[in-house]
Amino acid sequence: MLERVRRPLARLGANFIDGIWRIGVMARFFTLVIAASGTSFNRFRLVMREVYFTGVLSLIIIIVSGLFVGMVLGLQGYETLQKYGATESIGVLVALSLVRELGPVVAALLFASRAGSAITAEIGLMKTTEQLTAMDMMAVSPMARVIAPRFWAGVISMPILSLLFSAMGVFGGYLVGVVLIGVDNGAFWSQMQAAVDFRYDVLNGLVKAFVFGIAVTVIATFEGYDSPPTAEGVSRATTRTVVTSALVILALDLVLTAFMLRAEG
Amino acid sequence: MPETLVDVDAVTFGYGRRPVLKGVTMRVPKGRLVAIMGGSGCGKTTLLRLIGGQLKPTSGTVRVGGENVHAQDAEGLYRLRRKMSMLFQFGALFTDMTVFENVAFPLREHTHLPEGMIRDLVLMKLEAVGMRGAHRLLPAELSGGMARRVALARAVVLDPMLVLYDEPFAGLDPIALAVIGQLIRTLNDALGATSIVVSHDVVECLQIVDYLYFVSEGRIVGEGTPAQVRASTDPFVRQFVHGEADGPVPFHYAARPYAADVGLATKGGARA
Questions:
Q1: Domain residue spans of chain A
Q2: In angstroms, what separates the C-alpha of B93 from chain A's closest C-alpha?
Q3: Domain boundaries, chain B
Q4: CB-based contact A245:A145 (threshold 8 Å)
Q5: CA-CA distance, B144 to B121, in Å (whole number)?
Q6: Chain A residue nearest residue B156, CA to CA
Q7: Which of A19, A51, A264, B51 is found 20 to 30 A from A200 (Cα to Cα)?
């Protein structure tokens, strides 16, 4: 009996310790990336190339998703608001939901699955095919040449993508609210202008996107760099990037929102 | 006797508790082409990685050009590595760059040469390995042998004093194999470099190298010039050179007695 309890308990403990240990390794990895970032700024071309791969190539999914999320928000919002005769506030509802929450969070989730997984797979395969070792043997630090540019590209891209997502969402809300349903155009925009605060809403949303950008790219580059050099190892690392990123984004969102509301109140 | 470039002195190394190298001592004189031979998993690639500073020995020292490889900090190691280069088993070309950019990579990273000179140097090295015509291709468009020739051009583009080859002949057809073999010899002599080839291809190595070391179970078990090796009476060297299935290296992986494993009654009457 004791034996049957002991084994799963020991495994649980081992997994827990392993998890804590991994967080420590990741933190160390993060400081190494920051320390190796000099090259990224001296040769900004390297970062721009990665901005293209992580940012520009994510544009389609971000723009289309933003538009649809905005349209759905418009429909759902109208449905509820008309019960209170406040359909003109549809613009406020759509804009605030997007810039405060949905913009950064959904854009980050999409970014993790589109760009994060690609970063992990690419770095993992570079490791598997000994490209990282080869670089190291050429006295070129893979941290500075491969990891840091991808990290900074993600940190730069994420807030921009989040802004685009929110802007497209507001446009989607406009399409549904004003063009389709016929809410007053002037009321839609003026109420939005009056209710959305740049400092508390837009800037806080950007801060969130920036933090999510750091989290997703650190996870993605770390998982790739740390993946076992096998096909199975890379595939697992890619999955882990998406799952861990999603959980971390949602957890960080809760913490950041709590802080921001506190500062606001 | 030329001076020693690579000096491996009583090096031991293990992955975790599993010992891989048990007191290996070898010397590679300047300008020579030396082979480290042995069966798969005998520790020869590990030895190469110790010389390149990718791994740290448990005990013993490795000196390259008089400098202790493992006493260097990160900066010192990189300074030393600029004078050496390594050809990986499958080339390890950067898959997102063209052949030209791959060969230009070390030049762009370590020098401030004008673009025109980089172009000339790269094409010169590619010409030496017969791949100049392929400089616009991506690594994915090359065969295994061609990829390795490009990797060879990249390895020598900075004119290193020491080139380490990790299984350069693995998985090549006979023509590609002979081409790589000849290139290793020619480039070594033309550049005045020193080369260490890790391989298990006896026939090819005996043709091109100056000296051979045989590694088995983490120890140097034989050494000599190709002529000495061919005439050797040492049981391991004989088995290896002539490719005999059984000898000092047993055919069977270490196991319990066969009878016990298949469940036959053993002497005491007990069943396994």
A1: 13-264
A2: 6
A3: 4-83+160-261
A4: no
A5: 24
A6: A138
A7: A51
| Closest C-alpha among B207, B167, B162 to residue B28 | B162
Beta bridge partners of A235: none
Residue B265's pLDDT band, with cuts at 50, 70 and 90, is: low
Residue A211, CB half-sphere, CA atoms under 13 Å: how many?
A: 18
Question: Under an 8 A CB cutoff, do B90 and A129 touch?
Answer: yes
Q: What is the CA radius of gyration of chain B?
A: 21
A22: part of which helix (H) or strand (E)?
A: helix A2-35
- How far apart CA A22 and CA A36 sit, in angstroms, is 21
Judged by a CB distance cut-off of 8 A, whether residue A140 touches chain B is: yes
Cβ-proximal residues to B88 (8 Å cutoff; 6+ apart), any chain: A130, A133, A134, B151, B166
Are the CB atoms for A148 and A37 separated by under 8 Å? yes
Q: Who's near A117: CB < 8 A, 6+ residues apart?
A: A220, A238, A241, A242
State which CATH number among 3.40.50.720, 2.40.160.20, 3.40.50.300, 3.30.230.40 fits the domain covering B4-83+160-261: 3.40.50.300
- pLDDT, residue A26, reads 93
Q: pLDDT, tens digit, for every residue of B66-117?
A: 888 888 888 899 988 988 999 988 889 999 899 999 999 999 989 899 999 9
- Both tokens of A187, joined, read 């009321």
CA distance A31 to chain B (A): 16
Q: What is the pTM of this model?
A: 0.85
| Cβ(A220)–Cβ(A54) below 8 Å | no
Q: Can you tell me the distance from the alpha carbon of A252 to that of A248, in angstroms, rounded to the nearest whole number?
A: 6
**Closest CB from B54, B77, B79 relative to A133:** B54
On whether any CB of chain B is under 8 Å from the CB of A185, the answer is no
Q: In what order do the strands lie in the sheet with B4-15?
A: B18-29, B4-15, B59-64, B67-68
